[in-house]
């Protein structure tokens, strides 16, 4: 028996091995495994697979075949066995262990380690779950803002259209009110015409008989006298009516001094005077003249049509629109070929139940109509139309679709590398495997490139540095082609230039620096356009910015520190472009020179001092927080950058390379076997396929 337990195999359920037997079980195998007469087994006892599995089923404590307690575990088969089972053919030659040896070897630590691993995984999954929830909330908030923006734009676009629609509705209502007023007047005039026609027909018939039979018999003369008497009665009745009208008109004159009322009253006075001068035979014509004196064209068909209207007479108000909507009215207008039919089809609005003629009411309606609609001008609304640019809409849809991207953070982290310049050339560091790779070297040998290296797209740019007596040049390295090109820096004075550079992530690289010929030389800010390759001077810096560290944040260049300078932070607004820098933080309060500095692209600047102290400065609050110090000596300027919440310090063979967890606040030395001198040499983050 061997006491070399392999717990990795024990804990792995996939390691369970099935053993098949080639022999037949005899009737005497019911517990007696000492005798076996099967010649094909060579005298050995073999059990079937189902019998073997009975060892570990139902949490049994003893072997069902040998009636002995389980004392061993077969590491090859992952089965618990009794002392007799381990010598049988299925387990012969296997490795076994027992509880005593397991306890003496303190192998129980394996379970503790497993629990620690599971606990760590649970904490990681908990963090992942919270991250997913936060990401979902972030997506919801993004599209909520987008939806709100679209709703606001929709209302802004619809507002003038809605205003004109409401104006049109009010105009339609006003026109309907006027149509109803005219309709009511015409209806009452029609009633008056019908009443006068009945009276005139009776008078005309009797008068004609009297004129044609003057010489007839006495009976005809009596009839003529009766007719004359009737004419006199009618004239008396007409006089009474006329006097009544005059009284009404006189009352109107006293109540209202407006010119429109006076003119209307004069019309009716003239009519009454004319009627009093006419003889009996012209009574019918007088009635017709009274009707024609009102300046309204009454069509016989319209009068006949209006006479049949029996719906209640109501003034059209906005409330009627709720019963008969504007859309229904418009539909009726478009489907009707004449206003007569339109009025007939909408008797709920225009109907009038008046069956008796009332002069006072008629005069009042005519007067009100003249006042209300004398100067009314129904203007057409503004003929607005919204035109959409389908090409821009398509482009906008494409932009919205591309505004978000689902990415695997792990895959992104694996594609991010650290590009570093060293004394021996150019290199790239892979954080996922802590390995360095050599690249093609720059065609220009230069020193002091710290903070002068920046990555934009597929290119790495290096500006300035010390290069003997040559004119300053900048170099560009293609990550895809693995090739360097160099170009002279024009319009920038000085031979050896010490630059600190940063990029806005688009087309511009900003250079802050001075000449290395003298530490007292003035500093400046330049902009380099990567497309036109032109340098443009933006500002002079009053404070000398030797070996400063710069980064770009919200359209501002932040300039930190410099050799022999106060620990201050200055800013320059690239949008305002005033030509002057401003002091952002006068003194961050550090006691020794800065060794390295980097920015997390969010809000914090991480700063390492020569005395190993490590700080974090918030740009939003300007607060400084001291973090865990670096336990290793780094007394010269080196590069730092952040990838996926891990800060990397590239010290090279002189000080070593380190990583710092932003969340754990712990430093760790990298075992990357870096043998290159990287003091005062720059580095940046690149993305490689």
Lay out the secondary structure:
Layout: H1 7-11, H2 49-53, E1 72-74, E2 79-81, E3 96-98, H3 99-104, H4 109-212, H5 218-255, H6 259-277, H7 283-292, H8 300-307, H9 318-323, H10 326-335, H11 339-345, H12 347-350, H13 359-373, H14 390-402, H15 409-415, E4 416-422, E5 425-430, E6 435-438, E7 453-456, E8 459-463, E9 473-478, E10 483-488, E11 497-503, E12 508-515, E13 523-529, E14 535-541, E15 549-553, E16 556-560, E17 569-573, E18 582-585, E19 594-599, E20 604-609, E21 614-618, E22 624-627, E23 639-643, E24 646-650, H16 652-655, E25 657-661, E26 666-669, E27 683-687
Can you tag this structure with a few keywords?
689 residues, four-stranded antiparallel sheet, disordered N terminus, Neuraminidase, alpha+beta
Describe this structure in words.
The structure is a single chain. With 689 residues, the protein is an alpha+beta fold. Among the domains are: 7-107, no CATH class; 135-211 and 257-389, no CATH class; 442-587, Neuraminidase (6 Propeller). It is built from 16 helices and 27 strands. A four-stranded antiparallel beta sheet has the order 6-5-4-27. A four-stranded antiparallel beta sheet has the order 7-8-9-10, with no helix packed on it. Strands 11-12-13-14 form a four-stranded antiparallel beta sheet, with no helix packed on it. Helix 4 (109-212) packs across helix 8 (300-307), helix 4 (109-212) packs across helix 13 and helix 5 packs antiparallel against helix 6. The chain is flat and about 140 Å long. The model is unreliable at 1-58, 217-224, 226-230, 232-242 and 267-322 (pLDDT under 50). Keywords: Metal-binding, Zinc, Zinc-finger. Residues 9-21, 229-240 have a biased composition (Basic and acidic residues). Residues 23-43, 50-62, 261-295 have a biased composition (Low complexity). Residues 58-99 form the B box-type domain. InterPro entries: Kelch-typ_b-propeller, Znf_B-box.
């Amino acid at each position: 028996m061997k006491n070399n337990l392999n717990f990795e195999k024990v804990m792995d359920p996939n390691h369970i091995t099935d053993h098949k037997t080639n022999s037949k079980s005899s009737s005497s195998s019911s517990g007696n495994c000492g005798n076996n007469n099967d010649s094909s087994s060579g005298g050995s006892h073999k059990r079937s697979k189902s019998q073997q599995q009975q060892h570990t089923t139902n949490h049994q404590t003893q072997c069902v075949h040998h009636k002995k307690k389980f004392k061993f575990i077969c590491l090859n088969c992952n089965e618990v066995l009794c002392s007799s089972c381990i010598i049988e053919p299925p387990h012969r030659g296997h490795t076994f262990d027992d509880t005593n040896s397991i306890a003496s070897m303190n192998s129980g630590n394996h379970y503790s380690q497993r629990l620690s691993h599971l606990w760590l995984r649970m904490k990681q999954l908990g963090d992942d779950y919270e991250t997913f929830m936060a990401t979902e909330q972030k997506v919801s908030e993004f599209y909520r803002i987008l939806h709100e923006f679209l709703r606001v734009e929709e209302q802004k676009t619809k507002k003038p259209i809605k205003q004109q629609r409401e104006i049109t509705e009010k105009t339609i209502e006003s026109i309907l009110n006027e149509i109803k007023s005219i309709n009511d007047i015409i209806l009452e005039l029609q009633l008056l015409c019908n009443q006068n026609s009945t009276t005139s027909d009776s008078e005309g018939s009797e008068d004609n008989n009297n004129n044609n039979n003057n010489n007839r018999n006495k009976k005809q003369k009596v009839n003529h006298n009766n007719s004359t008497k009737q004419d006199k009665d009618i004239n008396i009745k007409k006089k009474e009516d006329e006097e009544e009208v005059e009284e009404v008109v006189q009352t109107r004159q006293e109540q209202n001094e407006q010119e429109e009322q006076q003119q209307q009253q004069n019309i009716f006075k003239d009519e009454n005077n004319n009627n009093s001068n006419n003889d009996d035979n012209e009574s019918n014509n007088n009635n017709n003249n009274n009707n024609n004196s009102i300046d309204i064209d009454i069509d016989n068909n319209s009068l006949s049509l209006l006479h049949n209207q029996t719906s209640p007479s109501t003034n059209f108000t906005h409330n009627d629109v709720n019963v008969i909507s504007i859309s229904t009215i418009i539909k009726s207008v478009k489907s009707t070929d004449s206003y007569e039919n339109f009025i007939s089809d909408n008797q709920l609005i225009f109907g009038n139940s008046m069956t008796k003629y009332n002069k006072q009411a008629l005069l009042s309606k005519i007067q009100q109509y003249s006042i209300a609609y004398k100067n009314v001008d129904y203007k057409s609304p503004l003929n607005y139309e919204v035109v959409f640019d389908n090409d821009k809409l398509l482009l906008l849809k494409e932009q919205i679709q591309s505004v978000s991207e689902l990415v695997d953070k792990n895959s992104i982290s694996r594609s991010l590398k650290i590009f570093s310049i060293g004394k021996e050339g150019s290199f790239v560091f892979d954080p996922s495997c802590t390995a360095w790779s050599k690249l093609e070297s720059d065609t220009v040998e230069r020193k002091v490139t710290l903070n002068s290296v920046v990555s934009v797209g597929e290119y790495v740019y290096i500006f300035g540095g010390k290069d003997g007596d040559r004119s300053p040049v900048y170099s560009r390295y293609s990550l895809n082609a693995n090739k360097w090109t160099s170009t002279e820096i024009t319009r920038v004075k000085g031979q050896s230039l010490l630059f600190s550079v940063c990029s806005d992530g688009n087309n511009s690289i900003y250079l802050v620096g001075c000449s290395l010929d003298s530490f007292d030389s003035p500093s400046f800010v330049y902009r380099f356009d990567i497309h036109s390759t032109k340098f443009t001077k933006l500002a002079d810096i009053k404070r000398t910015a030797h070996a400063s560290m710069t980064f770009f944040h919200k359209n501002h260049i932040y300039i930190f520190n410099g050799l022999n300078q106060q620990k201050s932070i200055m800013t320059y607004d690239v949008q305002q472009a005033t030509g002057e820098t401003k002091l952002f933080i006068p003194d961050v309060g550090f006691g020794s020179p800065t060794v390295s500095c980097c920015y997390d692209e969010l809000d914090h600047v991480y700063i390492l001092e020569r005395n190993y102290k490590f700080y974090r400065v918030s740009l939003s609050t300007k607060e400084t927080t001291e973090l865990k110090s670096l336990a290793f000596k780094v007394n010269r300027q080196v590069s730092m950058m952040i990838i996926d919440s891990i800060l990397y310090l590239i010290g090279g063979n002189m000080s070593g390379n380190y990583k710092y967890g932003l969340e754990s606040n712990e430093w760790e030395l990298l075992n990357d076997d870096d043998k290159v001198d990287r003091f005062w040499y720059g580095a940046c983050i690149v993305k490689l396929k």
